[in-house]
Amino acid sequence: MTAVTESWARIDAWLREHAPATFAKLAPPADQAEIARVQDEMELKFPQDLVDSLLCHDGMADYSDIYVLPEHYPLLSVAQILEHWHDNGVINGQHDDQASETQWFHPRWIPIASIEGDSQIIDTRDGRLGEHFSDQGGYFGPGTWTSLRAYLSATAEALLNGTDVKGRYPHVDENGEVLWVELADTEGWGRTLNRLPAEVSA
């Protein structure tokens, strides 16, 4: 079992018990042949962290819930990764592999999760997990992750121990859905939010 697979196993177990409605919105594993086909089309080798994650969940089965993970980006399927990459990765009609990291989009960035035009992206050159904003371009500065593995590990730890990820704590509403919310921002959601203490969520 890889580190990513182990983190997903812990996340899934917690969601099944405490937030079954959210767990039901995660897609089943991706097909290995489809992952290989998309890598060939993109002419990119996916970081092993991403492959391992896709073999746990091929994105979302239901995109009505954006709060599965702390950053509030719904996961993309293998097919959607290819689609988003094509949508973002074209520079003046072609992919420019020599473009700088400060450009709007680099062809070696892989979008893995997305909402309203913004995405979480992995840089295939070093595995870093950053963000791409539709109006600003890519960002890998303070507050981003060294890897997808680190992000999923932090998520699992927060769920199991009732701790935060970047100030957001896991809460569960009356419908059995998890939301990652700052403690000062639990009002105004139109639903009852319960933060599970460490002794309950462990």
Describe the structure.
The protein has 202 residues and is an alpha+beta fold. The protein has a single domain (3-201), classed as SMI1/KNR4-like. The protein is built from 7 helices and 7 strands.
The average pLDDT is: 87
Shape: globular
CATH-assigned fold name: SMI1/KNR4-like
Tally the beta strands.
7
CATH class division: Alpha Beta
Number of domains: 1
The helix/strand series, from N terminus to C terminus, equals HHHHHEEEEHEEEH
Strand content: 15-25%
Gap from first CA to last CA = 21 Å
Helix content: 25-40%
Q: Strands across the major sheet, in which order?
A: 1-2-3-4
Second rung of CATH, namely the architecture: 3-Layer(aba) Sandwich
| Weakly predicted, low-confidence segments | 90-95, 98-102, 198-202
Label the structural class: alpha+beta
Number of helices: 7
Give me the Rg, rounded. Answer: 17 Å
The biggest beta sheet is recorded as: 4 strands, antiparallel
Pfam families: SMI1_KNR4 (PF09346)
InterPro entries: Knr4/Smi1-like_dom, Knr4/Smi1-like_sf, KNR4/SMI1_regulator
Protein name: Knr4/Smi1-like domain-containing protein
Organism: Lentzea tibetensis
Strand-helix topology:
Blueprint: H1 3-18, H2 20-23, H3 32-42, H4 48-54, H5 78-88, E1 109-115, E2 118-123, E3 129-133, E4 137-139, H6 148-161, E5 168-173, E6 178-182, E7 193-195, H7 198-201
Antiparallel strand pairs: 1-2, 2-3, 3-4, 5-6, 5-7
Helix pairs in contact: 1-4, 1-6, 3-5
